[in-house]
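<backbone_tokenisation>
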Amino acid sequence: MEEYTYVNGKKLKKGFTTGTCATAATVAALNMILNQEIEEEVRVKTASGLEVNMTVCDPSYGPQEATAAIEKDGGDDADATHGLLIYSTVTLLADQETISIDGGEGVGRVTQAGLAVGVGSAAINPTPRRMIEESVRQIIGPDCGAKVLIWVPEGEERAKQTYNSRLGIVGGISILGTTGIVNPMSEESWKAAITIELSMLYNQGHRSVVLVPGNYGEGFAVSALGLPKHKIVNMSNFVGHVLKEVQRIGFTKVLMVGHLGKFVKVAAGIFSTHSKDSDARIETLIANLALMGAPLDFLEKIDACITTEAAAALIEEYHFEGLYQILADKIKKKSERLLRFRKPEVSVDVLIFTSERGYLASTKSLDQLKEEWK
């Protein structure tokens, strides 16, 4: 396996998914039962077909049962699970032919419908399950069975740093991975997690969704509008990507709630709002204020602002608050235009606010939004 990849000109180290770690730990444990000796290194095939060698941690074995662990290495895409020990305890069942796979301590349980794993099951996704089962069957043959328990001692605590609680997965981390390899592209992993959350909502029967760019947006949507948390999805800076995913999955109605500092970029047609990609906040304010007939001295003061909060204070001082309705309407127009060539048709409403001033404007009245989205 090529150990490194290049992203935006940077040389970055690849890693392994929790699914690959669980598979490797299982193979190591099974080898110890069959060979009755400690396994220090194990070679496994990832879901993408690459063969990798992995160091075995904390091995122990007996006549019919063994335990081994693999340390999760996320490479340069280190996420919440990086450094965790992923354990597998394997028990040979000579009088059975079935292979059972379950999760123990630190592996989450699914409590809501809509995910790839059924309610009540351990959060071990289909690809890792398949890789574990295929690896076990290849080693033990067709006439024997095995019980595999995947467990992660620190998994419950570390899961607090993941999306699991939003997905209805409780008690620990998920065992994930479609290729088995972690490519150091954090944004892609993040986008994939958002898609899972959207798909779960859709599979639960929802056809409308509230999108926010972060915790501030979620907090405002809950406190000011009384919106239910379970219908709110954090799209981070990936506004355009998430809107297209919303449409692809099948939603027909969207409410976007966000801080002026993020959403003003969308009013200018900028759909990746991270500062590394774009920053036209003040320029967009100036352009729209100028179209409203704002005086030059006022525009120059806006141009000197570092934050949109500072600009909002000046906008209030000069009585140009009508700007916010213009921006909200433009955000709606730009967002709907982004999706105009595909089906289904998606209706977008928008609400913008600031931390200091609260509500600024929306494409429908607050009362209408509360009634529609309660």
